[in-house]
Amino acid sequence: MTTPWTRFKQAARLKTPEQVPVALIVDSPWLPGYAGIDTLDYYLLPDQWLAINLGLLARFPDAVWIPGFWVEYGMAAEPSAFGARIRFHHDSPPAIQPLSTDIDFWADAPAPNVREAGFMPLVLRLYEHMEARLQAEGLGVRMVAARGPLVTASWLMGVSDLMMSIVLAPDKVHRFLETLTTTIIAWLHAQLDLLHDPEGILLLDDIVGMISLKHYQAFAAPYLQRIFDEFEGLIRIYHNDTPCAHLHEALADAHFDVFNFSHQADIAAVKRVMGRRVALMGNVAPLDLGVRGAPEQVEAAARACIDAAAAGGGFILSFGGGVSPDTPPENIDALLRAARA
For residues 97 and 161, what is the distance between their CA atoms, to the nearest angstrom? Predict the structure, then answer.
């Protein structure tokens, strides 16, 4: 039987499924508001978390949720393991405050134990419980996620200071990124080890799109490739919705399978540059259309994406980024209608 997940896997392997798959990155920026609950309750009440995520399968049976049954505290898990200050809110994901803007502080910082540091052990424990409950219902967690090295570095020391350090103290930045990469690999393994039948990983790093091609080759490519090579055989999804057309050709060699990218990119151009090497997941505008547009506008944009990028396989319809806060479910329905048509 062909399922939405089957179609997604076919497209991720550059094949042409019988229907264009629709896959959406969803997490706590959207889900608590969609369900009408306090963001803190979404994090703290496992039964509500489970009911909301199970409800997605019933409400949108043709969609694939990425990573799906995601245990997360916004973007806080990785920075919390290094001691970042976290501020929680009732109506939005937590804010993260840099711990030190000095690269000297971070250059030789030790790698944390991912089973003990910050929020990581809480995530792992909830995955352990929820995987057992989902298995009992014939379901399971298929995919886990992590933030990438550069975006984690930016949360810990601030974007501006990270960029300045890349220019002024490159050797120290490399030492910091080595530690972060080692930690991220260990973090992904720790999550995968709890799953019955893992099939993929999601890595999110938008800061990569803010640097030049020269700096990408030095400060991003080696670390991204090291992470993705570690999980060869799984479906490897890379999310970066910062506009970065200057990097697309180089990114195609980073050893991931699926690229979720900016709605500001010309999807036909991205297909020409990357489409024979990686599958494309996009790229309807998530805010201007996903949140503010009418369903018929979303459906028209989705059809345009299909027309521009589905031929030849390796295409997954999505928003050009994650599902934004306040996205109405009717606009997700519009994506699904376009795919069915």
Answer: 13
